[in-house]
Design brief:
NAD(P)-bd_dom_sf, three-stranded mixed sheet, six-stranded parallel sheet
């Protein structure tokens, strides 16, 4: 059996040119999305990954130790991006940096607003700075929450315009940003994420940073993060799983993208993790 990846076809860039193997610095590689992305990159590309995180439990099967067929292609670097001087060196070694590191659990936004703001804005500043100064491409993972409230949410529940797409469909370059008041700390996450997006965009406009911003909605699947004692018992039940009273709806969400909506026309979109991780 061949130990090398066997992509279905040669991968091409947006200009139609074959993509050469890259060295990728993946910050937050040990998390929910990062662990799946590492697996996908190892299985379907020839890229090399510098996996950066404070823990490696979810990628231990890839890095501790790396299987023989992955030797030299993935390495784990245990560091905290808040205060580790090794970060810039790893970004310099890479062709591309993917930043997935963040506090992104809703239960934390109200109870740990300072940590939420620091994690999603302050701690991300060095990553943006090093990528810009060293002319390295950055893929920054943001969130759909930067869109804030939809215009339709301000209309009466029985208003016919609530169901018109122009009042709830989100467009990355057109939708207004409507957040709640400062006293509602639930919005600390969205505000921090939007501010770091604006910084990334400004670095691109003024200093030529090559970047892509990703705004995931609700990705679900194996190895989801949870808060013990808040989302479930100590062994862990991801928050989203507790939101479904209809198991068949949950199963359909895991196996295919779907939308869930309530009678007052509030929509939630869910996507299985393997649908959002294509390298």
């Amino acid at each position: 059996m061949s130990s090398s990846p066997s992509p279905a076809a040669t991968r091409l860039d947006l200009d139609g040119n074959p993509i050469a193997p890259l060295t990728i610095c993946m910050i937050g590689a040990g998390g929910f999305i990062g662990s799946h992305l590492c697996e996908k990159l190892m299985a379907e590309t020839h890229h090399t990954v510098l996996a950066v995180d404070v823990y490696c439990d979810k990628i231990r099967h890839l890095v501790d130790p790396a299987p023989p067929h992955l030797a030299g292609r993935i390495s784990f670097h245990r560091l905290n991006i808040k205060n580790d001087s090794r970060l810039e060196g790893l970004i310099k070694m890479a062709d591309l940096t993917i930043n997935l590191a963040a506090i992104c659990t809703p239960a934390d936004y109200n109870t740990r607003p300072l940590d939420t703001i620091y994690s999603n804005f302050i701690d991300a500043l060095p990553v943006v700075k090093y990528c810009s100064e060293n002319s390295k491409r950055l893929i920054h993972f943001s969130t759909c929450e930067v869109y804030g409230k939809t215009i339709g949410s301000f209309l009466p529940k029985d208003h016919p315009l609530r169901k018109e797409p122009e009042f709830y469909v989100l467009k990355e370059d057109e939708s207004p940003c409507i957040f709640g008041p400062i006293v509602k700390q639930r919005w600390s996450y969205a505000c921090a994420k939007q501010l770091i997006e604006r910084l990334v965009f400004a670095e691109g406009a003024e200093n030529g940073l090559d970047f892509t911003i990703v705004r995931p909605f609700n990705w679900i699947g194996p190895r989801m993060d949870f808060i013990p004692g808040v989302d479930g018992p100590s062994e862990g039940v991801p928050r989203v799983l507790a939101c479904f009273s209809n198991v068949s709806v949950l199963v359909s969400c895991i196996y295919a993208p779907c939308s869930v909506f309530s009678e007052d026309a509030r929509y939630q979109w869910f996507c299985r993790i393997c649908s959002g991780e294509s390298p």
